[in-house]
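If you are new to this repository, start here. Below is one unmodified record pulled from the training split, so you can see the exact layout before writing a loader.
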Amino acid sequence: MEDKLDLELFDNPSPGRDYTITIRVPEFTSVCPKTGQPDFGEITIDYCPDKVCIELKSLKSYMQSYRNKGVFYEKLTNDILDDLSGACAPRWMKVTSVFTPRGGISTDVVAEYKAE
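And here is the target side for that same chain:
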């Protein structure tokens, strides 16, 4: 994304344990860069935190920043993964975007990150 990420984080309360956090954004919107029409979908973020976790209010603001951006599904899914994994350095993360069908075609995009 062009705007820099301003994401708040907090200390992982159980850094010695692998566990999964699942965050759903069921009312995600962006704009089709070809037609200018709105795109509606659900973004799901699954991750195993390492040292820090993502604070949800700041994540909401970040997600809302896509509302007026013209971007393809594939790019926004990978951008979200890059931005979030870069900010919180999880052990692993998966971002899944599921978009409402348009013209009889539905699209799901899945991108994954694994710490080295």
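Two things worth knowing about this chain: The mean pLDDT is 94. The longest strand covers residues 21-31.
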